[in-house]
Specification:
The complex is a heterodimer of chains A (658) and B (257).
Chain A (H helix, E strand, L loop, with lengths): L13 H8 L5 H4 L3 E5 L3 H13 L2 E5 L17 E2 L11 H11 L6 H21 L24 E2 L5 H18 L3 E4 L2 E9 L2 E9 L5 E5 L2 E4 L20 H8 L4 E2 L4 E7 L22 E5 L16 E2 L1 H5 L9 H13 L11 E4 L1 H15 L7 H27 L8 E10 L2 E2 L12 E3 L17 H21 L13 H20 L5 H15 L6 H21 L11 H25 L23 H4 L1 E9 L2 E8 L14
Helix pairs in contact in A: 3-6, 3-12, 4-5, 5-12, 10-11, 14-15, 14-16, 15-16
Chain B lengths: L4 E11 L6 E12 L4 H14 L22 E2 L2 E2 L21 E5 L8 E3 L2 E2 L2 H8 L21 H11 L6 H5 L6 H12 L8 H15 L9 H5 L7 H15 L7
Parallel strand pairs in B: 1-5
Antiparallel strand pairs in B: 1-2, 3-4, 3-5, 6-7
Helix pairs in contact in B: 2-6, 3-5, 5-6, 5-8, 6-8
Classes of the chains: A alpha+beta (658), B alpha+beta (257).
The structure holds flavin-adenine dinucleotide, iron/sulfur cluster and FE2/S2 (inorganic) cluster.
């Protein structure tokens, strides 16, 4: 039985009580304890830095050439915190409530409340590190709004918030490296967890420069290896983002929770052709100022700017007057798909809608600036010019990126956008301590399942990553390690290390010995297509059953026909990729099984069989009010364990953004 | 925007590893769409090579959004290629025309040894940061984020300097392989903020000492770095760094370590 270890007591006191009573490790003993951290994104870098500061001996790993390049760097729009600097009614409770509701009532109350509580500390910590957040003229921190909420609580640094936060965490990490508390292993990829006497005690990693396998001991192992959106091949994730670390942990007994909960982000640059290698996000913050529309006429071939105002359908404002363009992501994505499927899509492929800034450029920013400069009765041209300057400051890098990719100038013509895979709410199951179902193995950030239920609100992933790393794991890890202080470092000549390494070695040799005719990329693309078509924005029983079979066939094909050039004991990016794709092929099957099992629609998981008469997602709380935690039993064989979700404070209702 | 297809000749640096020498190899690719990114063109080439039973070309990349700083190709004599303020991954094939020959090399600098083909080792940058590119504040020590107002102008300038992605193009462009633009961006970012004040002097001295140790050259103000920086980091940061350095050098109480 899974035990979520949620502390007793009132919701708002649980974390304080926990911190007041958890076990501690004294400074002298911390020096003797070794901790492995996989990943240096926001979650991993903040954890490694904070644990190094506390005096643990940390070993941190990433597969890029520097910890600063983790995928978190790409986050654009912002990070939430319940600071209420805007005095607009925000509070810890409201952030907690919005997150639970945004997640469509499939997240744990206790975890989410803790997240909302520590959110305020994150901003303070980042400012102290020198993160250059956007500020107002008075020198105070500025905020913007994100989808699914009615307050302005998002802190940001232009369109580069992830970069600035990660550099803050990276610098804190490098400081610990300089002090000798953290040892950094770049270009190393974790291949397996080493288990000794039922506890995670180390890892096997592959040195990506020379292909050698290396063994590392740790009293505990922390995975912060990011999300698995790349199972869809095309996503907004970085090219290297993968599920390998989490998947190998799953194979060692860690339950995988809610794998089918995937977030499809409504505003991404559409696919331009078969050559497409990844999709680029246009931050949700743009929905603050951009209005989404399609022509009222089907198959309208006119240019956007030639379509008069009265012939445009601002379908989000029409369908959801209360939230308008700021409905949550899952709602916005499905609405875009609905319009395109019905024949109202735009652009050459017709798989796109417009995101238009003209209105706010003129009416919001242009007019405000004209006022500020004392310009009476400005003409449209002046308003556009003035408005552009403000928009440039807010989103300049995103507009430039759009223009580089599409060759079109979004200040002049509306952006074309379409939904794309963006984030995975599912991940390794963890308890309140962020420990997986494997003792001594923890999981933080996007790699775990914990806080976002069936749909994540914008600007909450960065918050969760840093909450987990800076403010949660330093306590909960101490609580675990307090009982491990007498364990001496285990030499990596121990049988468990030798045997685990031999297994990893065998798998790599098997991959290299196939020498078939098809490229790794071609398999990944095929998997992506199955997932997108049958386990994407809309899912149904028949499609999912087909997908499971197709993925099994594809996996068989892969192990017979993949061709990996080069050798094992050298740098070999194709081998790295093949090993990741092999894991995606197994994960894909589980995702479809999970989607099949959950015959309800909630958040990003939309089962066509379960919708309201006007096409909104329909939950079935009586049947599915649980976390689906899957345990691997063998080839193609999983067992479902259900962790019931008990709502003690919030009363789940059907979400309504109208 | 009109799209078109093109056939291209590529001359690409191939090098097995750090120990061996390298040389240019010539490849042909056809039917490249003007809508592709430069790296997608390399994907096409690599797929082609694998199918022909040859070794693909190794290159660094990850985000493909111009933000992680991982991609690093020296294209037709210019780091990151012909577009101003653009990383290799954001360069698109519209920049080229049918029949073009494109020469692609790794960054060339003693402090950035080649690892394989177009991949170099930039860990020297991490070590420069380790020497002082941070504010020494432990987790949990922070006061309220709004306790110290920071004039917007300073915050904006600090942000502009902090936009550096650590790609190393500045080093690759410089005839002396100086890392001063990178270093000055970090020193400026932190010196412009009140939080960075306490360690200001040591920071500049220690980071520069590390830079010298890594074997980067000295700055002779040619401005090649600024011209190629994909994040348009301004050379005025170097002037600011020089001021910091001189001020720090005069302060006799500053210890070097
Ligand atoms: C384009 C984009 C924009 C976004 N914008 C926002 C936003 O504005 N606000 C927001 O809140 N969220 C945003 N998100 C989501 C957010 O960025 C991510 O969810 C978050 O950064 C994940 O952080 P992480 O630390 O969990 O993992 P990551 O940052 O993905 O880091 C994973 C780390 O693990 C390492 N790793 C992985 N596998 C292995 C292995 N086997 N061995 C060794 N190392 C390994 C990697 O090297 C890396 O260091 C955005 C996401 C995308 C794609
Ligand atoms: S200063 Fe510019 S060129 Fe140099 S590392 Fe930073 S972003 Fe790259
Ligand atoms: S791949 Fe990240 S900047 Fe180019």
């Amino acid at each position: 039985m899974l035990d979520s270890k949620i502390p007793a007591g009132k919701l708002e006191d649980k974390w304080t009580e926990y911190k007041g009573h958890c076990k501690l490790v004294n400074p002298a003993n911390k020096r003797k304890l070794e901790v492995i951290v996989i990943g240096t994104g926001l979650a991993g870098a903040s954890a490694a830095a904070a644990l190094g500061e506390q005096g643990y001996q940390v070993k941190a790993f990433c597969f890029q050439d520097s910890p600063r390049r983790a995928h978190s760097i790409a986050a654009q729009g912002g990070i939430n915190a319940a600071k209420n600097y805007q005095n607009d009614g925000d509070s810890v409770f409201r952030l907690f409530y919005d997150t639970i509701k945004g997640g469509d009532y499939r997240a744990r109350e206790a975890n989410v409340h803790r997240l909302a509580e520590v959110s305020v500390n994150i901003i303070d910590q980042c400012v102290a590190q020198g993160v250059p957040f956007a500020r107002e003229y008075g020198g105070l921190l500025n905020n913007r709004s994100f989808g699914g909420v009615q307050v302005k609580r998002t802190f940001y640094a232009a369109g580069q918030t992830g970069q600035q936060l990660l550099i803050g965490a990276y610098q804190a990490l490098e400081r610990q490296v300089a002090l000798g508390n953290v040892k950094m292993y770049n270009r190393h990829e974790m291949q397996d967890v080493v288990m000794i006497d039922g506890k995670a005690r180390g890892i096997i990693a592959r040195n990506l420069i020379n292909g050698q396998l290396e063994r590392f001991f740790g009293h505990a192992v922390i995975l912060a290896s990011g999300g698995y959106g790349n199972v869809f091949y095309l996503s907004t994730n970085a090219m290297g983002s993968n599920v390998t670390a989490a998947w190998r942990a799953h194979k060692k007994g860690a339950h995988f929770a809610n794998p089918c909960f995937t977030q499809i982000h409504p505003t991404c640059i559409p696919v331009s052709g078969d050559h497409q290698s990844k999709l680029t996000l246009m931050s949700e913050s743009l929905r603050n100022d951009g209005r989404i529309w399609v022509p009222k006429k089907q198959n309208d071939t006119r240019k956007a700017n030639d379509i008069p105002e009265e012939e445009r359908d601002y379908y989000l404002e029409r369908r959801y007057p209360a939230f308008g363009n700021l409905v949550p992501r899952d709602v916005a994505s499905r609405a875009a798909k609905e319009r395109c499927d019905a024949g109202y899509g735009v652009g050459t492929t017709k798989q796109a809608v417009y995101l238009d800034f003209k209105y706010n450029l003129i009416n919001k920013y242009g007019k405000a600036e004209a006022n500020k400069h004392g310009i009476q009765n400005p003409d449209t041209e002046t308003l556009v010019r003035l408005g552009k300057e403000v928009v440039k400051e807010e989103y300049g890098n995103l507009f430039d990126m759009y223009e580089k990719i599409t060759g079109e100038n979004p200040y002049e013509v509306p952006m074309r956008i379409y939904p794309a895979v963006h984030y995975t709410m599912g991940g390794l199951w963890v308890d309140y301590n962020l420990m997986t179902s494997v003792t001594g193995l923890f999981c933080l950030g996007e790699a775990n399942f914990s806080d976002h239920g069936a749909n994540r609100l914008g600007a909450s992933a960065l918050m969760q990553g840093l909450a987990d790393g800076y403010f949660v794991i330093p306590y909960t890890l101490g609580n675990y390690l307090a009982d491990e202080i007498s364990v001496k470092p285990i030499p990596t000549t121990d049988r468990a290390f030798v045997e685990t390494e031999a297994k990893v070695n065998e798998r790599i040799n098997r991959l290299m010995s196939i020498q078939g005719t098809q490229t790794v990329e071609s398999f990944h693309k095929r998997l992506g297509k199955i997932m997108w078509d049958k386990c994407g924005m809309a899912r149904n029983e028949q499609g999912l059953k087909e997908a499971i079979q197709e993925i099994r066939d594809l996996r068989e094909d892969f192990w017979k026909n993949v061709r990996i050039p080069g050798g094992i004991h050298e740098m070999n990016p194709e081998l790295d990729k093949a090993s990741r794709v092999a894991d995606f092929l197994e994960l894909g099957e589980l995702m479809c099984m999970d989607a099949l099992e959950r015959n309800e629609s909630c958040g990003g998981h939309f089962r066509e069989e379960s919708q309201t008469p006007d096409g909104e997602a329909l939950r079935h709380d009586d049947q599915y009010m649980y976390v689906s935690a899957w345990k691997l039993n063998g080839e193609h064989s999983w067992e479902l364990e259900k962790e019931p979700l008990n709502y003690e404070v919030i009363k789940p209702t059907q979400r309504n953004y109208k | 925007m009109e799209h078109y297809n093109m056939n291209l000749t590529l001359k690409v640096w191939k090098q097995k590893n750090a120990e061996t020498g390298g040389k240019f190899e010539t490849y042909k690719v056809s039917n490249i769409s003007s809508e592709m990114s430069f790296l997608e063109m390399f994907d096409v080439l690599n797929e082609q090579l694998i199918r022909e039973g040859k070794e693909p070309i190794a290159f660094d990349h990850d985000c493909r959004e111009g933000i992680c700083g991982m991609c690093s190709m020296y294209i037709n004599g210019r780091p990151h290629g012909p577009w101003h303020g653009t990383t290799t991954c954001q360069l698109h094939m519209r920049a080229f025309k049918d029949g073009d020959t494109i020469v692609v090399e790794p960054w060339r600098a003693n402090a950035f040894p080649v690892v394989k083909d177009l991949i170099v080792d930039r860990s020297a940058f991490d070590r420069i940061i380790q020497a002082g590119g941070y504010i020494s504040v432990n987790t949990g020590n922070a006061q309220d984020g709004n306790a110290i107002p920071i004039p917007k102008e300073n915050a904006d300038k600090a942000f502009a300097a902090a936009a550096c992605i650590g790609c190393g193009a500045c080093v690759a462009a410089c005839k002396n392989s100086s890392a001063l633009l990178f270093l000055s961006a970090k020193v400026s970012h932190l010196a412009l903020l009140p939080q960075g004040e306490a360690e200001r002097k040591e920071r500049a001295l220690n980071m520069i000492a590390q830079m010298d140790k890594e074997g980067f050259g000295s700055c002779t103000n040619t401005g090649a770095c600024e011209a190629v920086c994909p994040k348009e980091i301004e050379i005025t940061n170097i002037a600011r760094l020089n001021r910091e350095y001189l001020a720090a050098g005069w302060a006799s109480d500053t210890k070097k370590h």
